Amino acid sequence: MKKTKIDHYTDKEALDFHSHKKPGKIEISSSKNMTSKRDLALAYSPGVAAPVRAISNNPDAVFDYTSKGNLVAVISNGSAILGMGNLGALASKPVMEGKAVLFKRFADIDSIDLEIDSSDPNEIINSIKNFAPSFGGINLEDIAAPDCFVIEEKLQEILDIPVFHDDQHGTAIITTAALINALDISKKKIDKVKVVVNGAGASAMACTNLFKKSGVPQKNITMVDRTGVIFRGRENLNQWKSGHAIDTKDRTLDDAIKNADVFLGLSAKGALTKDMVKKMAKKPIIFACANPDPEITPEEIEEVRDDAIIATGRSDYPNQVNNLIGFPYIFRGALDVRSKEINEEMKMSAAKAIALLAREDVPDEVVSAYGGDRPRYGKNYIIPSTFDPRLIKVIPAAVAQAAIQTGVARKKIDIENYKDELSNRLDPSMSIMQGINAKIKKSLKRVVFAEGEDVNMLKAAVEFGKNKFGIPIVIGSEKRVKDQLKEIGLDENFKIQITNSTDKIKREKYTKYLYKRLQREGQLERDVDRLIRNERIAFGSSMIACGDADAMVTGNIRHYAASVEKLKKVCDSRKGEPIFGMTMIVFKGRTVLVADTNVQDFPTADRLVAISKSCVRVARLFGFDPKVAFLSHSTFGKPISRNTKHVRDAIDLLKNEKVEFDFDGEMQPDVALNPIYQDVYPFSKIVGRANILIMPALHSAAISTKLMKSFGGAKLIGPLLIGLDLPIEVAPLRSSTSDILNLASIAAYSADVIDYKKN
Known about the structure:
Elements: H1 11-19, H2 37-43, H3 49-57, H4 62-65, E1 71-76, H5 93-107, E2 110-115, H6 121-131, E3 137-140, H7 147-158, E4 163-165, H8 166-186, E5 195-198, H9 202-214, E6 221-224, H10 239-242, H11 253-256, E7 262-265, H12 274-279, E8 285-288, H13 298-304, E9 309-312, H14 327-336, H15 344-358, H16 364-367, H17 391-405, H18 415-425, H19 432-443, E10 445-449, H20 455-466, E11 470-475, H21 478-487, E12 497-499, H22 504-518, H23 525-534, H24 536-545, E13 551-555, H25 560-568, E14 580-587, E15 590-595, H26 605-621, E16 627-631, H27 645-657, E17 662-667, H28 669-673, E18 692-694, H29 698-711, E19 715-722, E20 728-731, H30 737-753
Parallel strand pairs: 1-2, 1-3, 3-4, 5-6, 5-7, 7-8, 8-9, 10-11, 10-13, 11-12, 13-20, 15-18, 16-17, 16-18
Antiparallel strand pairs: 14-15, 14-19
């Protein structure tokens, strides 16, 4: 089994991450505008009285007028934190905040972490019962057994919202999905297999229960705890263990494992030996899920068996049993039908949906999670990747449908329409960089980081190399670069290529190349030599032009326009394309491309047409179906203004060209982006659907994008420099390390997918 490398982080890095800017990982933001006196009056007094009365008359109206239906409480008392034990309620807060972040990131569920400082199950039950009306669901986490059983069972009995102990059921659902597929691959029947479960904690019992629900007979499952096999007649068994006792003469794991088809370990490192593995049946299924170290490593298994299907709880091996595949999406489905509980049928439906998804061809977004290799359904791919964008569509729909069918849903929905809604719920661009990075990992382009002594640029270069996105080359003084590496806490001997104009052979080569370009523009050879010596942009772009590098990222220490002007001395524009800036805006589940954000001051109608065509070309490279809106302060001639004439002229020009993409304009940005206007303008294919926004002027584009970034909470990728005949990106002044890293990846991607020689 191929082991993949995973990053390791120091405690200091983790602490810095949690303390940076705002301490912690979550915050609360308003879902409604609060900009006027009227807004405040509607949000609070006197307007809030209306929903209060409505809920008083009909309690179910709370789902319509409050956040309850999308709000989950993540609750722990800290008695079993990860693998660290009982560290108390307060110490569990970072974990619970993390769980809340995952709910939001993967399923768009709002969560609040609540840490209860008590070891008394009854006290915990009463606390949750009293604040439960505020929430649409309860996620229990890191509560030690057997208290977790007592708490969950009682809450399920007294509350009318989903109560889900993820340590139990999340693990059970993912493991059952893996079992379904492992049995399919090994051609074994679920009602005939012999299963051994090593461990008798909360997760082991939940897995066993769901295995039985999926079709494994109870008599075929042997559970083993620290004392040995749980058999009928064994003394001192609690009520939960006794439910899994069977008639058997086996007393130890070594006894039970003989001819076993399936081993599930939720116990401790070293519990399963190679000799035990040898005793198992043909094509054994071994789920060694102890964390952080499995009961037996895949390498040890493969030393004695070449026919085993293996899963672990680790991310550095294939087939990771990861609860993240389950819990966000299970709650998503339960919340959307206002389910009263998460029952066994809903869990089973989730497991089956996960299993079936692994059998389908994977999308490009998943490839990045596997180091650029496309996984195929088989012994090394029985569980979908946590980054599979289809999870949000598949699992909630299965859970919701099961809730409706079993009568626990308060709300019935059209499942097919629901699937479409789910697909659009989360931001598809979260996977854009993953797909790009997966692509460039295969080609390993040489990327120049021009301002190599700048801290953020240098950090980006290091990360680029560390992640094996390509080969970073920094321009700078070797001594200053190494000193900088040491200062920022990185190994000064980090293997990174450093180059500069002191390299006489390169300097003369680049001077000769550039002088040939500029000699008829009044430039003397000594002037060009001075340019190569002193301007890193000229040196770096000449490296690409002369074949010594493949792509470059520059900027960060100067204004964008200044960088572009310097580039124009070395680079030409692509044939038929203007040079312009295009910014990707990611906001609330939507991605739009905006141009020109950085270069063209007041483009003519012809130039707007050219920009739109180039944007369409780039959009298709990123996998978007382009829908172009030409923006203005007016919409379809209302109000008429001389300032919109060039926009209207651009539309007319495009209509005459019969281009192969949808476009329309002129229109205001809310008309382009908000579906509520589709009824007002039914004749337009673009209204409410646009993903490319062509701005009427540079100032409007720059102001809009910077405002979105500063106050709108949007994520910006770029601006991307479009139209050069070399794969070069320019980082705006004072870009972050991650921004520069993204631009470097995009430059490498451009070098890989665009044939610049055909320019």
